Amino acid sequence: MQFGICTSIANAAAMKAAGWDYIEENVQNFLQGLVPDAQWHGEALAKGAAVPIRAACCLVPADMKIVGANVDFAKLTAYMGNVTARAKKCGIKTLVFGSGGARNVPEGFDREKAAGQITEFAKMAAALAAKNGLLIVMEHLNRKECNIVNTVGEAEGYVKQVNSPSFQNLVDCYHFWLVKETLADLKKRLPFIKHVHVSDLAGRVPPGESGESDFRPFFAVLKEGGYDGPISVEALGFEDIAGMGPRVLAFLKRQWAEA
């Protein structure tokens, strides 16, 4: 089992010292799909990092619409071409497709058409991911962040429509708990879950920091289903990795062992 943090490569040395396995970077900040190749320097940064970048989240900028009347599919395709090619150069294996702002359904827009647009984007992205040896995972988001794809089950529906080994599912315990999905729901979705995000439900702080979240039942379902993929902390207030990192990692490892 590998544990990582959704954070900047600037924190790589602190992560290594604290015992973490990998970084989950920000696609928009690090891979910079809209920046010309001559102005992008991510590959050199990745090669010099103290810990590897194994994943990246925040796939598509909010103003680059995937859904609605103003979708520029050619621009999306070019953007994803840059992102996937650069991810391969950096050794990144997984890209997380949350992107609530980009996929949010505009008021009055036909939801069936919106679902078709998301599927069209996902099929294009999956083909580019396959070409570059990557995995894209669909992230469900709570209804305050996005008004479509709000549960793990809904995300699985898109995974099945895309029907590609390069497009799979993610479970984020914060969104999962917030929309009140059940462990029985999670158990049914396990065959397609290839990436995990964690944080405490209370304040979305790093695991263990609120003292209120017990991850063991959640982890037990993952373990029983044979999950052995990465687990990334996606949390607020995790800037002091040197100070907080060792105890957060120890908490996660203990909860996983006890699950």
Written account of the structure:
The protein has 259 residues and is an alpha/beta fold. It has one domain (2-9, 22-195): Divalent-metal-dependent TIM barrel enzymes (TIM Barrel, Alpha-Beta Barrel), CATH 3.20.20.150. 43% of the residues lie in helices and 15% in strands. The protein has 11 helices and 8 strands. Helix 1 (12-18) links the parallel strand 1 and strand 2. It is globular and about 45 Å long.
SS-based class: alpha/beta
Number of helices: 11
CATH class category: Alpha Beta
Oligomer: single chain
DSSP helix fraction: 40-55%
Given the C-alpha coordinates, what overall shape results? globular
Spatial extent as radius of gyration = 18 Å
Task: Draw up the topology in text.
Blueprint: E1 2-6, H1 12-18, E2 22-26, H2 27-31, H3 42-47, E3 53-57, H4 73-90, E4 94-97, H5 100-103, H6 111-131, E5 135-138, H7 152-162, E6 167-172, H8 173-178, H9 183-189, E7 193-198, H10 216-224, E8 230-233, H11 241-258
Helix pairs in contact: 1-11, 4-6
